[in-house]
Amino acid sequence: MYIREWKPFCLIILLICGCYMEYDDDKERLIRLSSGDHEAFRILFTRYQPGLKKYIAFIIKSDVAAEDIVQDIFIKIWILRKQMKAINSFRAYIYHIGKNAAFDYLRGYAVERNYRSHLKPEPRISQIEAYYFASEIESHVRMLVRKMPRQRYNVFLMSRRDGLNYHEIAHRLNISHKTVANHLHLALCEIKHELDEIYA
Questions:
Q1: If DSSP codes are grouped into helix, strand and coil, which group holds residue 40?
Q2: Where's the RNA polymerase sigma-70 region domain (predicted)?
Q3: Last residue within a domain, chosen from 66, 90, 121
């Protein structure tokens, strides 16, 4: 099924996964969240994390990867908490983000699989590797890597520093092969984007 055909199908998934419930006090929680209220964040997480994980897992067919994606989504929500008071429907907002994240994961995995099947990196990957091993900018890369989410940070270091393959990383971190591929793809794209901004 092509991604452009998923819009009506995603609505069906929402119903199947029980992701249609919205709470009357969500707006109040969002206002409190925007002020840095940890309890408001915890309540929103408890309410929506299970259904969002089911929704994403249904699309990408991986519970482990879905859990990682949901974790990243809520981390971003906390980082952007000051903007949350402008959200009218948190349920609609978070499932829209979840759908996009799921499709990004599928695209990223397809790119990574294609890359490995040809046994040669795409130009942007080789550029990132060149940046990483260039001594004059290594400090910038180290700084960018330290800012990554913990799981992505661990995957990146195990791959680039320790030289582990996908299977070894997945086994050590108890995550799927697809999740490893996704983390590496996102990490490399993030580094390339930031370095392009610095050295453009």
A1: helix
A2: 44-108
A3: 121
